[in-house]
């Protein structure tokens, strides 16, 4: 019988679709990368998803984030995403947490209940903690490295963190994870040399470095993550 996942089932088969329906995935960070990852998982038939982010939609999100519209500015990203995802699949089981994941908030999540974890947050401390906690529970995780200041989405690839190069964030992660005894971490990263962004009015007022971004680099990284999860679950190479 035809349903909203019929075209996906033509590629993966009914048994894989049943497996996806029983999966529970946690997506930490619903921004430029994580928003596309989460939506692709929902559209692919994943039955349960937890979305974790404490940020609100801002004007500068409109250039790259799938949930960012003029009508959603000022709203929590998790709330906007939840509404959108339930409109895509009303049968979806979804939990939304308005929390920034950090070592101080790590005890609010039990990673053993998840079939997969997506790290799409910006904080290095948070990313390290996600990797450490996933390692403790042996929960599959995939982590997004830097997508800012990059304009060649075709250069993103999947690798183990210890086989990465060029990416400054990956370099820091390698060092910190090695110290903590984490022996592996699947990541999406790019060997593209980051562009030095021009100074912006926003940066001048905030006195912090503001990365440049595009509509295509974060979205591609996010979709690569989603495809890796679906293909791994379905045993597709």
Number of helices: 8
Unreliable spans are: none
At the fourth level of CATH, the homologous superfamily is NAD(P)-binding Rossmann-like Domain
* Gyration radius, in Å: 17 Å
- Major sheet summary line: 7 strands, mixed
Strand portion: 5-15%
Report the mean per-residue pLDDT as an integer: 95
The number of strands is 7
Architecture in CATH?
A: 3-Layer(aba) Sandwich
Q: Fill in the CATH topology.
A: Rossmann fold
Q: Strand-and-helix sequence, N→C?
A: HHEHEHEEHEEHEHH
Helix percentage range = 25-40%
Q: What shape does the CA trace take? A: globular
CATH class identity:
Alpha Beta
Structural class: alpha/beta
Query: Terminal Cα separation, in Å?
Result: 28 Å
Query: What's the arrangement of strands in the largest beta sheet?
Result: 3-2-1-4-5-7-6
The structural domain count equals 1
Q: What does this molecule look like?
A:
- 37% of the residues lie in helices and 14% in strands.
- With 237 residues, it is of the alpha/beta class.
- It has a single domain, classed as 3-Layer(aba) Sandwich (Rossmann fold).
- A seven-stranded mixed beta sheet has the order 3-2-1-4-5-7-6, sandwiched between helices.
- The chain is globular and about 55 Å long.
């Amino acid at each position: 019988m035809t349903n909203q996942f019929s075209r996906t089932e033509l590629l993966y088969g009914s048994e894989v679709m049943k497996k996806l329906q029983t999966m529970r995935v946690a997506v930490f960070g619903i921004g430029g990368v994580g928003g596309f990852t989460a939506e692709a998982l929902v559209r692919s038939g994943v039955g349960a998803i937890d979305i974790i982010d404490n940020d609100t939609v801002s004007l500068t999100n409109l250039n790259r984030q799938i949930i960012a519209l003029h009508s959603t500015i000022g709203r929590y990203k998790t709330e906007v995403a939840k509404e959108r995802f339930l409109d895509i699949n009303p049968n979806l089981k979804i939990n939304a947490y308005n929390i920034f994941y950090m070592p101080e908030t790590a005890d609010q999540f039990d990673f053993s209940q998840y079939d997969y974890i997506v790290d799409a947050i910006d904080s290095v401390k948070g990313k390290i903690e996600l990797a450490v906690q996933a390692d403790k529970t042996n929960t599959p995780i995939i982590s997004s490295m830097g997508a800012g200041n990059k304009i060649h989405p075709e250069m993103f690839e999947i690798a183990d963190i210890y086989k990465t190069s060029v990416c400054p964030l990956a370099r820091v992660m390698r060092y910190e994870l090695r110290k903590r005894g984490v022996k592996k971490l699947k990541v999406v990263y790019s060997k593209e040399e980051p562009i030095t962004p021009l100074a912006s009015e926003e940066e001048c007022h905030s006195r912090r470095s503001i990365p440049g971004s595009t509509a295509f680099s974060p979205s591609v990284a996010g979709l690569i993550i989603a495809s890796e999860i679906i293909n791994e679950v379905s045993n597709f190479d």
